[in-house]
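Office hours follow-up: a student asked to see two folded examples consecutively, so here they are.
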Amino acid sequence: MLRCKSFLFAALLSGSFARLYAQPAGLNLKVFGYFQVSFEYRQDLGQGVESKSFNLQQLNLFLQKDLLENWRALVNFELVNSYSSSRNWGTFNLEEAWVRYQRGDRLNFKLGLQVPVFNNFNEIKNKTPVLPYIIRPLAYESSLSEDIALEEFVPGRAFVQVQGFIPAKELKLDYALFAGNSPNINSDRGSQTGVDTTKLFLLGGRFGLRNSNFKLGVSATFDDLDFHLVAQFLGYRPSDFNKVPRLRLGGDFSLDAGKWFWASEFIRVTYDDDHPQFDFDKDFYYGTLGFHLTERLFAYGGYWVTRENALPFQELDVIALTPGLFYNFNDVISFKAQYGRVHFEGFTTRPPEFTPRIPIDMNANYYFLAISAFF
């Protein structure tokens, strides 16, 4: 079935390319994209384990068309981690498919599947050729989605969004409000998949302030999560965990001061339940300080932390120190190098007693090289 779907997708894309070149120029369909290929060398310190690997880390393919004056449509396909359906590698996602009405920069209205505004980085996280990172701040790194619960830290999808800015002398007051499905999306093949199984919504937004040198803002989302399966496993009443309110709070601040650059964010995720043994709260923050060595060469250093609770099962902190280099070779190609010193700390337990707590205390070195390109 997966092979059949992949063949169908390839056939559709091939047909799209063929029709694109056969169509009159006035139809104005644009096909473009970018990708990042990386090489990783890892050392698990204290365990004597080493590994190295090449990886097609991410590829994005876009189809864009201006429909009418002020109206635009865009579709974004994303493939991660050397995607192959036949080998069960990586992931393939329809990331975006929306129609936008734009009345200047002061008012944008989007309908359809989209990545919502949250903090400063969520909207631009997939634009690998213009980002200095190989591994992005951890809550945004799609290649780590099998290891980090990314969509618990940041909202991944919305379906309605209004955004823009209000000018105030030399400042701009940014605003964004969005709505989408709750996290309770059906994946059971016995019934219609991809639809919300509740009457709940994801609601969120960001308000900020910026000028040509700095940008700051606060973000929030609210939704309800169904934890009844976890409740059953722990022996609680499932009805107590059908609608657990989840609140994400975020803040961002970035500064461009000549050759120096600073970017930072925090995210706090809390679940409002009445059971002290149950704790799935999460924290994330990062700070990156950069310096333009030349017009094309950029150096940076970052300190990134994620803290994931899944009590009583596990608690894990990931702390990364990461310097790197970014070289903008030309308008379509960039080269990158990055090092990460990562510390893993926490504990895990074994059901059903969830004792004893088995400590996690590990250090690892990561070395990365990458090339990003537009096409």
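And the second, which I mentioned at the end of office hours:
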Amino acid sequence: MKRRAIKVGHTIIGGGMPVSIQSMCDTNPHDATETLAQMRKLHAVGCEIVRVAVPDTGAIKPLAEVMKAAPMPVVADIHFDYKLAIEAVAAGVNAVRINPGNISEPERVRAVAFACQTKGVPIRIGVNGGSLDKSILAKHGAVTAQALVDSAHAQMEMLRRYDFEDICVSLKCSSVPTTIEAYRLMYAQSDVPLHVGVTEAGTLYHGLVKSSAALGALLVDGIGDTIRVSLCEDVVEEIKAAKAILQAMGLREGVEVIACPTCGRTKIDLKPLVREVERRLEACQTAVKIAVMGCVVNGPGEARDADYGIAGGIDEGLLFRKGEVVAKMPQRELVDGLMALIAGDEANKK
């Protein structure tokens, strides 16, 4: 089922457009300077939509300041007080996220819908397993996939009652199987664009594992129009992770660094080499595949399809291009040699 599209600032979500990457500022919402600085940092590494918390009326004036210079579309995250959503729209935000578990009264939803409709601002219905409406939770007895979907449908029906259709939906909980099932149900039942992610996923390691498992299972079936990898970590890591997941799923192009896990044949200190190659290519926007392999068995043999690569020896290594060896040098010179090889080829293309 083709997704309908919504427009968040200059970014289109759904409608067959590429999957966009989101994050959320963790700065003091009363400090516009701090928040803008983090937004710029996120934008520089590839964030395309950013969410900000609006916890009280004191956050509205700084939000208006942020909107004058925001480097990407901004979504206001609203809980409990529907008036804050209305004020955030007046401050110039590009979208509003409301949780049906804590803003569900018809008149309040109607007021938010009217404010958004007047300004052409879409609403993300952000269903969260930790804050389901009490009646839905009582009906299902627990946080289930169907409970999450029922909550989203109830809020969508309410918004549509007020002729509001500019909707995006997320169905998040900390359980990977429940999250996957909920999105699959929603995808089959509605054509609204879907914001996909696992909430409260955890620290960098466990959060990335959980997010990769859920997002991979959904994206491979075409489910997901915009994503966030939620991590209890520097928010920049969320963008790096999201880009890597989309690239692994064939939905983004960029630098792909592959490396063998090493074994008893490895005679070179490979792991620092891989980390340094990744670091040096972090800002590269070219679609290129780099192989860093521990021996000649894995590279350039098994890594022949890589654009460039390193194959380790005893404290030295080979540089290769498309499976063909181009140089042999000491380990300490390998990364510089690889970068020079790539840069030279890029310069020759111009």
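Two things to take away from it. The domain at 255-342 is CATH 3.30.413.10 (Sulfite Reductase Hemoprotein; domain 1). The chain has a mean pLDDT of 93.
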